[in-house]
Amino acid sequence: MASESSQPAKRQRTATGEVAAAVRRGSRGLTVEGWKNVPGFEHMGLQVADKCGKKLPKTQSWCFVPLLFSSLGRVPEHLCREGASSEAQIELAQPVWERLFSHWSQWRSALRAACEAFGEERFVAEMLPKTCTAKSWTTSLVYGEPKEFGRLPHPQGRQQDRILAMLPNDVQNQIFASVVTLASG
Question: pTM of the entire structure?
Fold first, then answer.
């Protein structure tokens, strides 16, 4: 019989294998086809998926919350609960996001740098929810696929705005324009 301490590691490996298989076969909910330019940003090659197989919300949370936790690379321990995205799931979700947004990895790096400049411990304490309970709002790490990629704690809208304001204006504009372009079909 396996010791209790080896059980979380075994569950982590099993979840990682399941998510890796999901990435290999393609996202069940997001069927990405081709690319289209983001109007006004053609000069920099900013593109989004031409089609993704789902009607997407016109709000930013469905992609900004995953970008936030992707930049951290983890869900802080005080916000973890059953079904929360693991570090492995966050890592494995990056190719899905990169198929939706051409500049995803650059945005992730810019947000990571902003978090580091702010101080990661301070950032987690001041910008993220204080707790995550069964009644707290959450967002899927990958839109429409919470079972395969897990869920993320959902910061309040004003906190998301504060976090976005930490980014250079051009990066903010890229994110907003990309979300609108992708969500408008």
Answer: 0.83
